[in-house]
Structures are given as C-alpha cells and as structure tokens.
Amino acid sequence: MSAVLERIAAVVGAAGLITDEAGMAPYTIDWRKRYAGRPLAVVRPASTREVAGVIRICAETRTAVVPQGGNTGLQGGGITDSSGTQIALCTARMRRVRAIDPINNTITLEAGCVLAQVQRAAEGAGRLFPLSLGAEGSATIGGNLSTNAGGTAVLRYGNTRDLALGMEVVLASGEVWEGLRGLRKDNTGYDLKHLFIGAEGTLGIITAAVMKLYPLPAARLAGIAAVDSPGDAIRLLEIAQRQSGDSLTGFEMFSDFCLALVLKHFPGTSAPFRTCYARSQYVLLEISDSRSEASGRTAIESVLTEGVVAGVVLDAVVAQSLAQVQAMWALRENITEAQAREGQNLKHDVSVPVSCIAEFIAATDAEVRRAYPGVRLVTFGHLGDGNLHYNVAAPQEVAPEAFMREAAGLTRIVHDNVARFNGSISAEHGLGQAKREEIRRYKSALELDLMRKVKAALDPLGIMNPGKVI
Ligand SMILES: Cc1cc2nc3c(=O)[nH]c(=O)nc-3n(C[C@H](O)[C@H](O)[C@H](O)COP(=O)(O)OP(=O)(O)OC[C@H]3O[C@@H](n4cnc5c(N)ncnc54)[C@H](O)[C@@H]3O)c2cc1C
User: What is the pTM of this model?
Assistant: First the structure.
C-alpha cells in the first residue's frame, strides 16, 4: 500500500478504505455507463472529522479527490479519471439525521443521507421534504446539493438550492466551515453556501446541511391529460396556475413515444387511456391540498374541466387512490430507465423560458429531423419550470452504438437552439465531465473567468474534482 493510503487508512480505518478492484468496481462507472475511471482507492469516511483528516492528507500530498454520493449523476461528475492517482471519496457511511426541528421546519442531516430516507424522516415528524426525483432511492443529499438537483416539485418548492438553509463543508485545505444555520433571514455578507451548491464537488466536500421542511399536505391528487401539442400543454399550465396557485405542485409533460417506451420496458404498467393518442403529449399534474382530499379533487377536476371546455384537453383521468397517484408518477419517472433499456441515446437536459417551450420544441424537432431523418425524439420534462429532457434516439433500424458515433453533431443543433431561446444547456444535471467543454461555447469569457477565480480562491492546489465543470 502506498504511503498516502497508509496515512488515509490510519484516519478512516479498514472499514473506510477499499483498494481491491472488485470492491472498487461499483464506484468506478457512472449510472449511464458512459464514464469509467480507475481510482487509487475508494475512501468511505464515517464522519466530518474523518473527511477533514483525509482532505488534509490529500492537500499535503497533492492527491486529487473526487466526491461521490449515490453515483446517480448523469454527467460523469462523480467518476475519477483513469490515471490511478485520484481517490474517490464516497459519503455512504455518513447517513445520520442529526436533528429535526418541526417548529423551525428544518432538518439537519449528513451528506450521505439518501433522499428517500430524508423524505421518510421528515414524514415521520409530520413534515414534508419536497425534493423528489426518479433516483431518490439512491441519490444522496450531498449529491443533490452539489448538482443543485431539480426534480418534480421545483414549480412549487424550488430546486435544491432553494431548500438549503445551512451547510457544513470540508474545504480543500482540510479546514471545516461550520455554516449549519437554520435561518431564513441572515444578511451577514456573502452567502457562502451558495458557492458549494451546484459546484459538483469542485470547491469542497459538503458533509452536512440544514434543509427546509414544509407542512405535510392533507392530500395529493394527480391527473393525466392528453393534449395535442406542447402549446396546448402550456395553455393547460396557465389554467392550472390561475386556478390553483401554490397548490399546483407538479406539472410534467411527456410525449406519446416516451409512454410507449415505458409500456414496453416496464411490463405490468398500463396506459392512462384506452384510446391511443398517437403523436400527442401527456401532462401529469399534481395538486397538493392543505385541507382535504375532497377539496383537492374538486380543484384538479375543475382545472381539467376548464381545459376540456377550452378545447385544450383531449381526454383526462384523475387518480382515485394514492396507489393510482404513484402509478401515474411511475409512468413519468420510469422514462429515464426505459430509455436506458432501449439503448443509448443523445441526452440534453435543457431549460428555456416556459413561454418559449412550444416554439423551441417545434424549431428543434424540425432541424434535428432534417439533419438525421428517422430519429426518435424522447422529449419529456418538468414543463412547469421550463426544463426539458430533449433526448434523441436512433431510428428503429440503426444500432444505438452506431447512432451515438454518427449523431454527436445533433447536440450542436439542440444547444444552439437553446441559446437562441435564452435557455441553459444544463438545467438540473450539472456539467460534470460531459459538458465541461460544451459550456465554453455558451457562457461569456467574463463568466468563465469569474468561475475560474472562485475555483482558484477555494481550491488553489486544484485537488477538488479536477477536470469537472471548468
Ligand atoms: C433515474 C434517474 C432520474 C433522475 N432524475 C433527476 C431529476 O429529476 N432531477 C435531477 O436534478 N436529477 C435527476 N437525476 C440525476 C441525479 O440523480 C442527481 O444529479 C442527484 O442529485 C445526484 O446525487 P448523487 O448522490 O447520486 O450524486 P453523485 O452522482 O454521486 O455525484 C454527483 C456530483 O456531485 C458531487 N458530489 C456528490 N456528493 C458530494 C458531496 N457530499 N460534496 C461535494 N460534492 C459531492 C460529485 O463529485 C459529482 O460531481 C436522475 C438520475 C437518474 C439515474
């Protein structure tokens, strides 16, 4: 064992260090299997003190550190390079909920807590932790913060940044910044936690956080509407927002092709309607009611009825039980996995102003189809907050691997259109290693320079997740 690893082993003990290839394997490849690394070791500290000890050694020995939470990131941000010199630092042994304060509506937890575990802990205290996403059974709160994850409730509660009140971070020097404040008002200078949110582990290691909680709604009502086009989906959104205001907690859209993929790859799931609405879009909307199920039901039915009367909704169904609500969400949340089972595709996690979505989709679809006839567009996303997963799959008769080699140029079409509509080429997944170069085309030189200066100030030795983001 190298001298560095011997020193690290003395900090984390045998349970906190993996050096054999088989043991390291799960940490060396990303969820999409697009990035494979070869770490020097996988280090699994059990406490903030241990993280700080490890980072101090890394700083002294100039050893690069790649933080990893649940390894569900989609941009290769948590994967080491293949030099065999970087350590992967995994937070999986830091899963303690340190405190819940139902009066202050806050939860204080360690970075390795899995999102679903946080939701359950909040519920146990009669509160809601609203962050929700398809990978919540594995993704960690540290990963959510580091990618500023979005998910399905951004429309009402904001993204992870909006939910964070305080943070504890091990800096690149090994010092611990103790910023675990549970305050909603604190104007005492620069709000440092925001530097680490969305930084994808390039500025420090988040070890704990204070997150906001909300009252548990009395009822969650979900419905699915078939609409003709993205434009009609936006018109339905306007109706839902006008009628329901803050009670509207989810507004997702997915195409008929997305639904077909889920039905194909998840046997046992059923389509929401008996009629086939080919070439249509589906909207999944959720209303959370603070009073009662009956009042929520009246609200969602009223939205859909107005949609039908306005000629915007072709057909609609409202869930009759919590199990049906969950089945509806499964249709939406299983799209990512269904596409993966269908084969690789070109992924674009983009956002544009909600008012531009219909025009963006129409323009981009036409250009992409012209450039590569026969492509199958897997378009879905969090319509209510302007975030689309605009993914492009191979034509039926083309092997996905060949398509991925030939079609990389399509990304330029998609991203240039995003820029034309004043959007972002990474809405919620971050840059990682996947978009590190691409972002240089879309951010100004000044903005990139500011980012480099922040990086140099906080990580002067360049040991924190090098090669990611910038
Ligand atoms: C099926 C599926 C559905 C998804 N749906 C969504 C969605 O709706 N919305 C969304 O936003 N994302 C979604 N994602 C992406 C992913 O789940 C999120 O990016 C999530 O926040 C990553 O958390 P993680 O713990 O897995 O992080 P990892 O993948 O382990 O790491 C992600 C990045 O954060 C860094 N990092 C991790 N922990 C720390 C830490 N403690 N301190 C500093 N840096 C750290 C890593 O170095 C890496 O750069 C989905 C992924 C899958 C597979």
Answer: 0.95
